Amino acid sequence: MRDHTKLRAFELADAQTLEIYKVTKKFPRDEQFGMTIQIRRAAVSVASDIVEGCARHTKADYLHFLDMAYGSARELEYQISVAQRLGYLDEEEGRTVQRKCEETSKVLNGLIRSLRNKE
After folding, report:
1. Among 46, 55, 65, 97, which one is least packed by beta carbons within 10 Å?
2. Is 73 in contact with 13 (CB distance < 8 Å)?
3. Alpha helices in 8-90 (DSSP H)
4. What's the CATH number where 55 sits?
5. Alpha-carbon dihedral of residues 75, 78, 82, 87, nearest 10 degrees?
């Protein structure tokens, strides 16, 4: 088993999740069960899939969950861009969150590529 707490990708995903919860508190009330829940779900999925992958015994399973985490990370990037365009995030806040999402995706993709190159 792997220790997820030692992965930079997990650190970024965890911090990103906390940031997402903070910024989505300001979303319109009528989005509480729409955009807010979708964005939060995607953010939590990134970190959760990394944790679950680390708990798997085979490299193939580990990579499968990292792939799912990467998919959720990219989904989150899109959802943040929609929230920005709808005006749910102010310009500075939107840029900050978007940069964090992009960094998480890049680090996660690098981890996946690194593991695949070792095969």
Report:
1. 55
2. yes
3. 8-24, 35-55, 59-85
4. 1.20.1440.60
5. 100
Joined together, the tokens standing for residue 75 give: 């989904």
pLDDT for 32: 80
First vs last Cα of the chain: how many Å apart?
18
| Alpha-carbon torsion (81, 92, 42, 75), positive or negative | positive
The whole domain housing 35 covers 4-117
Q: What angle (nearest 5°) sits at the alpha carbon of residue 24, between those of residues 20 and 29?
A: 165
CA 119 to chain centre: 26
Cα–Cα distance for residue pair 46/32, rounded to 1 Å? 21
Please state, in angstroms and rounded to a whole number, the distance separating the CA atoms of residues 10 and 30.
31
Token pair in block for residue 55: 């708990």
Q: Which two tokens stand for residue 66?
A: 């990292």
What is the pTM assigned to this prediction? Answer: 0.92
Instruction: Provide the domain count of the chain.
Output: 1
pLDDT tens per residue across span 37-89:
999 999 999 999 999 999 999 999 999 999 999 999 999 999 999 999 999 99
